[in-house]
Design goal:
Distance between the termini: 31 Å
CATH topology: Glutaredoxin
CATH architecture: 3-Layer(aba) Sandwich
Strand content: 5-15%
Radius of gyration: 16 Å
Shape: globular
Strand order of the largest sheet: 1-2
Number of strands: 4
Largest sheet: 2 strands, parallel
């Protein structure tokens, strides 16, 4: 999250940054991540909205997320609409359309590409 927080600090006065917590990608009762095991992270796939909110809060605190965190519903509507699993960066332009869609993470999680899109969108705003 370091590079994303850097963007938040640089552009947060002009761009609204939101994190949407979606379905847990690597729950202990699903596809277990070696990285989670190495870091002693144990999360079960929530079955209620309240459980998902609790897991999201723990995640946000563990990652020191400074941005507003929103919660996808148990129907996974946001994740489905945006193809967000396991993670993905988006920029929604002033006109409401998608100005940037990153590739699926973790390999496609490229904050430098998002920054280029932010700069372009802000330049259009000024023009």
């Amino acid at each position: 999250m370091g590079a994303l927080h850097d963007l938040f600090h640089e552009y947060g006065d002009r761009v609204e940054f939101l994190v949407v917590y979606i379905r847990e990608a690597h729950p202990d009762d699903g596809w277990i991540s070696e990285g989670n095991l190495a870091q002693d992270i144990h999360v079960y796939d929530p079955t209620t909205g309240e459980e998902r909110a609790e897991v999201a809060q723990v995640c946000a605190m563990a990652l020191d997320i400074e941005m507003t965190v929103l919660l996808d519903g148990m129907d996974d509507a946001v994740a489905s609409a945006y193809g967000a699993l396991p993670d993905r960066l988006y920029l929604v332009g002033l006109d409401g359309s998608v100005a940037y869609q990153g590739e699926p993470g973790p390999k496609g999680f490229l904050p430098e590409e998002l920054e280029a899109a932010i700069r372009q969108e802000l330049a259009v705003r000024v023009a």
